[in-house]
Amino acid sequence: MASTAAGKQRIPKVAKVKNKAPAEVQITAEQLLREAKERELELLPPPPKQKITDEEELNDYKLRKRKGFEDNIRKNRTVISNWIKYAQWEESLKEIQRARSIYERALDVDHRNITLWLKYAEMEMKSRQVNHARNIWDRAITILPRVNQFWYKYTYMEEMLGNVAGCRQAFERWMEWEPDEQAWHSYINFELRYKEVDKGRTIYERFVIVHPKVKNWIKYARFEEKHGYIAHGRKVYERSVDFFGEDYVDENLFVAFAKFEEAQKEFERVRVIYKYALDRIPKHQAQELFKFYTMFEKKFGDRRGIEDVIVSKRRFQYEEEVKANPHNYDAWFDYLRLVENDADPDTVREVYERAIANIPPIQEKRHWKRYIYLWINYALYEELEVKDPERTRQVYQASLDLVPHKKFTFAKIWLLYAQFEIRQKNLQGARRVMGTAIGKCAKNKLLKGYIELELQLREFDRCRKLYEKYLEFSPENCTTWIKFSELETILGDVERARAIFELAIGQPRLDMPEVLWKSYIDFEIEQEDFGNTRNLYKRLLQRTQHVKVWISYAKFELSIDGPDRLQKCRQIFEEANKGMRSCEEKEERLMLLESWMDFEKDFGSDGAMDRVRKLLPEKVKKRRKLTAEDGSDAGWEEYYDYIFPEDAANQPNLKLLAMAKMWKRQQIVEEDEDMGEKSPERSPEMVEETSSPPSAAAPPENDSDRNSVTEMEQEKNGSRDDDGSSSSDSNDEDGKKESREEEESSDSRYEKKSREEEESRDSRYEKKSREEEESSDSRYEKKSREEEESRDSRYEKKSREEEESSDSRYEKKKGVCWIMWRSARRSARRSARRSALKSH
Q: Where do the segments described as Disordered lie (predicted)?
């Protein structure tokens, strides 16, 4: 930095760069280096060649070179390359003594340098100084015995010189250090080059001890096989199997052993070797073994041998599965099934003992259900296959001692044990077993099995006692009562059977009372005691009014031959219909009427059929509001309801609806007549519009409107019935009186006329209604889908508003509704007649 006169430092000015943008062409370091190499900027020209012509110049040259080498060594004597260059330069001048001196000096600096020893020995061998070379190799292997290169060079030199004894001695010295496998192979190959097979065998013996690997044993055996010593080779394989034992087995050893025996045509030996190996090697390590075994059996074996291979493979698979999860009882079952087909009893017992040793850890029946079958299969195997009853008895006893009977039991094993004792003609033992079972843990299956056992033995007194015990244990079991009664019936004691049935139906709690009553009734029918049967039906109907009981009762009366059987059957149907009027299940009531209708078709007259047909209900589609679990609105659903004529007579709203339907039907018939007369003046739609009643009294045109009307009227009638009040306005009472008077006169006239016209009108109406139904259904469905979404919202909104005001409006309008509807009907008839006259 420059300083001013005042002593202050002055900062030099920095050159300003005007254009700081990067250059268009960028140069990298790689490009700089490549350019320098292409231009050879760093290469120095070679020194000029020097030609020496006299000895002084040569000595001077030597002095300068030696001085340079010595200077380099003096600067860094640990750099062995300087020593080697120095020695090689002296060697090139044939100065062997100087070169040897340099190598010795270098060895004093670093005697563990392998390259230095190699160069030193190579120099001596090149100069044919054999004793010097031997001396150097001997020193090298003494100092560095683990360097294999020295040994290879040394033995190779001795062999090249023909000194076989010296080479063998060097190999022996080398083998004392237990080198790697290649060194042993070199020694063996050396002996084989001079036909020393026995010495090679001796070396192999030492080799497999020093390096105990499977491949070395295989090489040893192949060595014996190659030189024709088959017995020695087999012995080597056998020794190798014994040497490795069962802990360190390898599939390659057994494969090689089997191939050796296969080459000697010893096929049975091969098969034994493969089976021995498969029994001791894990499955995941024996893939190649299975492969070669299968190939061998395909080449030299029969079908049985191939199956043995597959069985062995499956056996190893099951062994792996049960080792992975000992509580996998399905794997144990498969394994035992495989072993039972192809194994001796001792082996099978061993596998069974291993399987049953895996007791479920939790004392819950669902964990024991599969396990207990191991014991059952074990006992059956001992009994059926081995024919050893004493051992079978021990298996059953051990299984029963193992099961915790206080928490749960298995009736199957108790019954199997008792049946086994019977097969052994030990009846007292079987009864003792079943008595113990019932005393320890009584259950339905045990009692049933014991009773069946005594029945087979025809011990009926014991069966009676057992049934009594069974009913004391489980009095609500209807099946037991029925079986007990059947037993007494078979034995011919009818009164005892009837008493059992009476006791049964008198029980306060039964699991299937309908089955019990049916069995009792069937019993009385079989005994042809029809009076008791009728009494039973009446007693049963006092307890339940089920439709199937009524139908069965009617069929029973129909099945009895007698002059008044049809009358009794019809009377039962009538009583059933009266009794089921208050039944909420309308489907059951419909079922009863349909059954009655079938009866009248088969046995009744036309009048009776018409009478029953009038009792049949009308199927009506309705809608009801759904509510979700959380109380929210879930929309509307359609359902079918049945309206019986007897119920409709009690509800004037339904009668009004029926009359409105009849009015509409009459309108359609009149339109058909007008169309038949080919009236072009007015269309049916116009006639329907002019002849329709007022909107307040018009019948609903679709199911939703009709359902809303019927629901409102039913609610209103229900509320009026519940209140029981007779208060109403004077106007309403007058309107009701007038409407009743008009209704009586008009109904009689209308019914009389309608009966005359109904027969001719029904055929035309049905024909047109079928045609209209097909078209109207499609139009209605299409329209209903479009309107349903908007209708729901509007209906909900409107229903809330109308519910508040409907009560007052309904009371006022109901009295006027009948009069308006009658007047509208009369005006519609007049207009229809006028139009007909005009058309004529």
A: 670-812
Q: What are the residues whose beta carbons fall under 8 Å from the beta carbon of 134, sequence distance 6 or more?
A: 157
Question: Contact at 8 Å (CB) between 798 and 715?
Answer: no
Confidence of residue 736 (pLDDT cuts 50, 70, 90): very low
| Of 835, 823, 824, nearest in space to 670 by CA | 835
User: Distance of alpha carbon 44 from its chain centroid, rounded?
Assistant: 82
CB atoms inside a 10 Å sphere around CB 820 = 16
The β-bridge partners of 689 are none
Q: Is the pLDDT of residue 459 over 90?
A: no
Nearest alpha carbon to residue 742 among 675, 799, 659: 659
Res 171 pLDDT > 90: yes
The span from the first CA to the last CA of the chain, in angstroms, equals 138
| DSSP β-bridge partners for residue 642 | 619
**Among 83-97, 598-612, 762-776, which range has the highest average pLDDT?**
83-97
CA 472-475-476 angle, to 5 degrees, is 160
* Angle CA 312–317–318, to nearest 5: 100
Residues 6+ apart with CB under 8 A from 646: 581, 615
C-alpha–C-alpha distance, residues 532 and 538, integer Å: 10
- Cα 385–chain centre separation: 37
**Average confidence (pLDDT) over 58-73:** 89
* pLDDT reported for residue 721: 39
Query: 313 to each of 273, 291, 306, how far by Cα in Å?
Result: 15, 10, 11
Tokens of 399: 């299984």
pLDDT of residue 683: 37
Which amino acid does the sequence have at 482?
A: I
pLDDT of residue 117: 93
Please name the residues in contact with 167: beta carbons below 8 A apart, sequence gap of 6 or more.
Answer: 155, 158, 159, 190
Q: For residue 256, what are the CA distances in angstroms to 76, 85, 188, 233?
A: 59, 54, 21, 11
Please report the DSSP string for 764-804 in residue order.
HHHHHHHHHHHHHHHHHHHHHHHHHHHHHHHHHHHHHHHHH
Helix (H) or strand (E) holding 756: helix 730-839
- Do the beta carbons of residue 451 and residue 470 sit within 8 Å? yes
What predicted TM-score, i.e. pTM, was given to this entire model? 0.45
Alpha-carbon distances, residue 309 vs 255, 271, 275, 296 (angstroms): 15, 10, 9, 10
Q: Which of 100, 87, 96 lies closest to 135, judged by CA?
A: 100
620 and 641 Cβ atoms separated by less than 8 Å: yes
Q: How many residues does the chain have?
A: 840
Residue 523 burial (C-beta neighbours within 10 Å; 0-12, 13-18, 19+) = buried
The average pLDDT across 316-322 equals 78
SS3 assignment, position 51: coil
State the Rg of the chain over Cα: 59
Crossing angle of the two packed helices 684-691 and 652-676, in degrees rounded to 10 = 140
What CA–CA distance (Å, rounded) separates 636 from 625? 5
Q: What would the two tokens of residue 176 be? A: 């004392």
How far apart are alpha carbons 467 and 487 in whole angstroms? 10
d(Cα 272, Cα 768) in Å, to the nearest integer?
Answer: 94
Distance, CA of 109 to CA of 81 (rounded, Å): 12
Cβ-based neighbours of 746, under 8 Å, separated by 6 or more:
822
Higher pLDDT, 261 or 312: 261
DSSP string, 581-633: TT-S-HHHHHHHHHHHHHHHHHH--HHHHHHHHHHSPEEEEEEEEEE-TTS-E
